[in-house]
Structure formats: C-alpha cells, structure tokens
Amino acid sequence: MANEEAFLRKLFQDFYQKHEIEGPPETETREFGYGIFGRKIVNRNFAFRDKKALNFFLRQSVPFFVSYSSALYRFPSRRPMEAKELLSADLVYEFDADDFHGLKCGRKHDFWKCPKCGKEGRGSQEVCDECMTPLKVEQWFCTDCLDGAKEKVFALLEFLEDDFGFSEGIAINFSGRAGYHVHVRSEAVRSLSHSARIELIDYLTANGLNIFSHFKKEATFFSCPPQKEKVGWPQRILFELVSLLEEGDVEKISIMGDISLTEAKRLVRERKQILSSINERRTIPSIFGRVSSKGESKSDKFWQSFLGGIVTKIAPIDRQTSIDINKIVRLPETLHGETGFISKDLSRDELKEFNPFDDALAFSMDETVKVFINKAPRFYLAGREFGPFENLETELPLAAAVFLLARGAASLR
Ligand SMILES: [Zn+2]
Ligand SMILES: [Zn+2]
233-247 and 298-314 are packed helices; what angle lies between their axes, rounded to 10 degrees? Predict the structure, then answer.
C-alpha cells in the first residue's frame, strides 16, 4: 500500500498548497488531532496559535484526517485533559449515514465475505449464516443514505430553533464521508453545565416523556394536547400522527402500531372519522374497543406503540449521541482520508441541495489513473455512474480513483 499512500499524500499536499483552511472560530483555544492513511486519529493535543500556523502544519505534515475540539481551552496542547483548563464548549451533533442505513439501501451497496467458509452476501449482518463466524461488512453509502442523515439535521435545527430559541451561532458541515455535523456556538450554549447538556439530550431524545400525559385516556377516546401550545413534543407528535393518517400507508401503520395488516387496513378505512375527530373535537377515538383504565386494552397497546413509533421517527438524535465535552471532530474544509472528499462547510440553504458525490469533490474528473479494483458496488460521482467492479483493472477519473484507493478498495497499476 506504500505506493497508494504516497500517491494520495502528494494529492492531499497539492490540495493544502492551493487552499487556505479557515480553521474553527477561536483557533488558538482548540485542541487538534490528526490521522494517517488508514487511521483517523493517531495523535492529538496539538494547538495552533493562528490560521497561518494551522495551514503551515497542513502543508508540511499533510495529515489524512484533521480533527479539532468542540471545547475551548486556556492551554489546548497540555496533557492530561485537566491541565488544559476548559473555558467553554460548543455543542456538536454528529449524524452518520451508517445509522440511517435502511435495509433497502444497504442491500444495494454493502457486502461481506466470510473469512472462514468464503460465503459471500449482500447487506449488513453480524455473523455468516453458513458457519456463524463474525463478519466485517464492507459498508458503502449513497445519496439515499446521506439524505437520511440530512433529514435528521433539519429536524434538529427545528428543535434547536423552535423549542430552545437557539438560532445564532449554528454551523453545519459535511463530515467528509457519510454524514453531517451541527455545531452550536452561541454564548448561551457554550456555558451550559454538564447536567444541562444531559437535560438537552433527554429532551431531544424524548427520554422521560410520558406520552399519555399529553394524550390523556378517557373512556372511549384519547384527548389531544391543547391547540394553544405551538411547539414542543405533544404538538409534533400530533402533527406527525395526522400526516401518517393522511398518508394512509397500511404497511407503515401496521409496523408502527404493531397490529396486523387487516387491522391497519380497517384503521386506514376509518381514518376520515379519526381525522375529523382530531380536527373538530381534539380527540382520538379508541378504535379497537374501549380504553381500559388499567391500560391493557387493544386500543391502549396500539396507541402506545404507534405514538412511541412516532417519537422514535421524529426524534432528531438518538440516545447514543455523545456528550463527551472533550471529543474532537472533523475540521471543516479539510480532506477526509477515506474518501478524498472535502468536509464542506454548509449554510442551511446549501445543505438542502448538497450532494457530496457532486459537491465535495477535491480532485479532477478529467485526469485519469489506472487502478486495479478489488471490489466496489455501483457508485455515482459527478454525474456519472461507476461499477460495480470486481477484480478488474481499469482507468478511472482521478476523483473516482481516489475514492476507491483511499478506502483500500483499489490499488495503483
Ligand atoms: Zn462462513
Ligand atoms: Zn445508501
């Protein structure tokens, strides 16, 4: 691989020679880290006194990955952590397409080969279905899975603005591979304590939300949250409930409500009455018989499951979201060493139209390189489709070659 590493390093060096990286706000208070070919972080506890020093480092050392701290420190390069003296910290939310890999998408571009028996398959799974050996799945990503991550970004922005009034100091960037990062840097956020940060996560994940305190049970119906509340979880749930009923997707309703397709069909048939009951009387009929005071009737179970499914669907982040104040994340506008893509800074409007496979390319589509491709699914880049490839020598545009070489799916010829 030495050849490939040197080849990529030369390209990355050219890129950093030609581009000046802006660096994060208050560069001098940030801790930096970097990675080499095949390893995202090999070294951290670096600091740069300004933008010039940062760019000098990029041109001289040519890292394959560059990360910086969401925290601001008095002495960012000191070790251990406590010696850095924390000043404050941005909030950072990471959205990775890996988490929104729908089965459909994954079956299109992910694959595995069992190291023991040699069986091959598509999609993601943990063990070989022939011999139960643990598998390492080759995960790829496409515009569809990235759009899943994008939807969550917009959902988060809505929560931040509507529920918390955070509209200042929000920055968005592409991660350089398969996701997006949202940074909140307003003063109000930076001074939040650890417990306030946990509370924020609790709210965004609806942890501890008691749905039936907002959709109260009566004998033959559930009441809806009052109309005067314009924002917040109850209104969001209600809004989504109405959209799902209007959409009337039987399969979706049966899965989310954990009922049979026949029952879901019945519900869809009766949705007109349900919708007018919601709109006119602000009540949801119990549908499957009376509501039990013990909360065990079929209607109780259905609404519990259905409303719970709505919460999961519209929650902008999941419980796994890190609140590690000391973490380091991709530095915007630098290259990602596994794709050769630029981790583009994006305004909200730019994000709407953004497709990394068109808009994050750092290298030429006109120049070509001869490569040997081990295996790659069909992928899209700059208006063209490539692959699928398997054990094939071919000539590719530079950007496409880098995309494969960087992740080790191809070698130079
Ligand atoms: Zn096997
Ligand atoms: Zn996909």
Answer: 100
**Distance from the alpha carbon of residue 178 to the mean position of ligand 1, in angstroms:** 28
Q: Residue written as tokens 């033959």?
A: 220
Model confidence at 231: pLDDT above 70: yes
Helix (H) or strand (E) holding 143: helix 143-158
Q: How far is the CA of 392 from the centre of ligand 2 (A)?
A: 23
> How far does residue 192's CA lie from ligand 1's centre (Å)?
50
Residues 66 and 23: their CA atoms lie apart, in Å, by: 11
Determine the distance separating the centroid of ligand 1 and the alpha carbon of 114, expressed in angstroms. Answer: 5
Q: What is the mean pLDDT of residues 285-294?
A: 72
Q: Which residues contact 66 (CB under 8 A, 6 or more apart)?
A: 32, 33, 34, 35, 58, 330, 331, 334
Rounded Cα distance between 302 and 281, Å, is 21
Q: What φ, ψ does residue 73 adopt, rounded to 5°?
A: -125, 155
pTM of this structure: 0.92
Residue 294: its pLDDT value, please?
65
* 101 CA → ligand 2 middle, Å: 6
293 Cβ neighbours under 8 A, 6+ residues apart: 217
Instruction: Look at the block and give the residue holding tokens 């009376």.
Output: 290
**pLDDT tens for residues 347-372?**
999 999 999 999 999 999 999 999 99
Cα→Cα distances 14→47, 75, 263, Å: 23, 31, 62
Instruction: Decide if pLDDT at 147 tops 60.
Output: yes
Given the structure tokens 């499951």, which residue do they identify? Answer: 305
